[in-house]
Amino acid sequence: MMRAWILPMLLALCGSVAATGLFFGGSPGTAAALLLVFVLLASVNSPLIFPRSIGGLEAQRRSSVDGRPVVFWRPGCTYCLRLRIRLGRSARQLYWVNIWRDPAGAAAVRAANDGNETVPTVVVDGQPHTNPDPAWVRTTALPRVKKR
């Protein structure tokens, strides 16, 4: 788990060092703007943005039981981030699988995308959809979730 925080911590640290240098160099406005950019980059790359990932096999098992879509993603993917942000709170209704941490998830993505690890790949009712429009996921995939 600690490894997931290395990049965000490095971004925050580098931003702090650069902003401190600018601040003491006489540019407090630029220092504040630069620090804000680095903090935003750190938060976007942190594990806080995405719901907790589970294994690919476990996600597929759970999806077959309750009908929730499975999203295969990887850190640093701008399309995955776009999907996550545009789904908002409803993103927690999906099962998220980090393909860099789960070999079975990466294999499922390669099987669905002609050997490529193209993400996000959203699996709805056993059918993979590569890089779907977030509006489609919200209107088509999420209503399929069975109510408990």
From TrEMBL:
The keyword Transmembrane applies. It comes from the Bacteria. The chain crosses the membrane at residues 29-50. Residues 70-127 form the Glutaredoxin domain. The keyword Transmembrane applies. InterPro entries: Glutaredoxin, Thioredoxin-like_sf. Keywords: Membrane, Transmembrane, Transmembrane helix. This is Glutaredoxin domain-containing protein.
